[in-house]
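User: Show me a protein chain along with its predicted structure.
Assistant: Here is one chain, sequence first, then structure tokens.
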Amino acid sequence: MTSKRKLYREDEKLFFLHSYYQSGMSKHAFCRAHGICCPALLNSWIKKYSNLAEELSLPSEQESPDMSNRSKEAYKDENAQLKKRIKELEKALSFSKLETEARELMMALIYKVTLV
């Protein structure tokens, strides 16, 4: 019994390549999930259409400013904002602790009153 090889049209190959680049899956897992016989076939398509790799792959992310490219003022501003936020959170935590102590004191007083 001979196995019949599946022949793929060019548009199918390009579709699979585009899907592969977007999937983030390993070649083996992608081939298994899409019914492609083996990763070697996918590799041959990648080689054949390597000139189209940029068009088929995910669009490159906008480059975020590198830490090394930031100015000293930007660091100072960010540091000041973070310190301000820390103070706000510490204040909120202190207030929450006071509320908890007040509730516990009220519960203790209620407990004493009910025992008398």
